[in-house]
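REQUEST ID: PR-0412
SUBMITTED BY: lab tech R.K.
PRIORITY: routine
TASK: structure prediction, single protein chain
INPUT:
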Amino acid sequence: MGSCKSNPETTATKQPVLSDYTIGEKWVWKYKGVTDEGEVRSDGTDTRKIVDFNGALGMTIDKDTVLVSEIVKPEKSYTPKYKWPLEVGKKWKYEKDWTSQDGTTGNQSQDVEVLSFKKEIVGAGTFMAYTIEYKGTVSNSRGYSAKTDEVWLYAPEIKNFIKMTQVQDGFSYTEELIEYSK
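STATUS: complete
OUTPUT:
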């Protein structure tokens, strides 16, 4: 998974591979989204689990199951969400065009920097994690446009993020890992 050097600031982490996952592995995040006026727009939990999916490893995501082989497939993009290997000081551009379930299309464009690799404490425990900052804009076909700042804490040990905070013009959203098991 990653290098085992004694100085965490010099660690580089490669993208997880299929053999890093095991059946029964489970992640549970608590999420909450609140407007600047205090209106709660989302509040709940998100659970993902590794399962046997027709003889292959699958990850349950909501009511869907996605093959883990698809999740770990290297992203063919010059502007990826994660630019592997992760290491402190690395910078890149993240851009994504998307379509939501209701047919709204949109675009996200952010400058990314890996700020640190250190111990982080969340509801699920203490993990070594990269702090990755995403700063930029998001817009959609309904006329919405906002500045967006996100911070993701990615923990190589569990092959996932342990916390994410996002601030977008008058709205704050947080996800925090509250449970992890193998």
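NOTES: Residues 70 and 95 are 20 Å apart (CA to CA).
REVIEWED BY: pending
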